[in-house]
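debug: dumping io for the single-chain case to check the tokenizer round-trip. Nothing else runs in this session.
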Amino acid sequence: MARILLVEDSELILQVTKDALEARGHEVIVARDGEQALRRFLADKPDVVVTDCLIPKMNGFKLVENIRELEDEERTPVVMTSAIYMKQNYHRVAMEAGADLYLPKPARPEEREEFMRKVEELAGEASLTARGKEG
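debug: decoded output
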């Protein structure tokens, strides 16, 4: 399955999301702030990055911009997420920063399933693209 870099500063949300992704067979790399996430991104080469918008030391928007600056033509899929539903411009800012997808954090179990499905779709697309370039 996919190697997923999960960037989240809320311990509860991080653990619930990590457990759900691992239960689906994914390898999950954890970072709790933007600076740590950028180091983990460079060291671990994840298939997908899932990051909260509002994280310490470097917000998620700046993290995505930095990731995009470091990449060559191969682009790592990035999902940005937030529990702050009132901020309608987060979607726009996330996409401008270079995110591939913006999702609200799932609050209910049925939302979590949809969230996981969308993350896996991006992971699958990234895997197919990487395999196509190898062959």
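debug: round-trip ok. The chain has one domain: 3-134.
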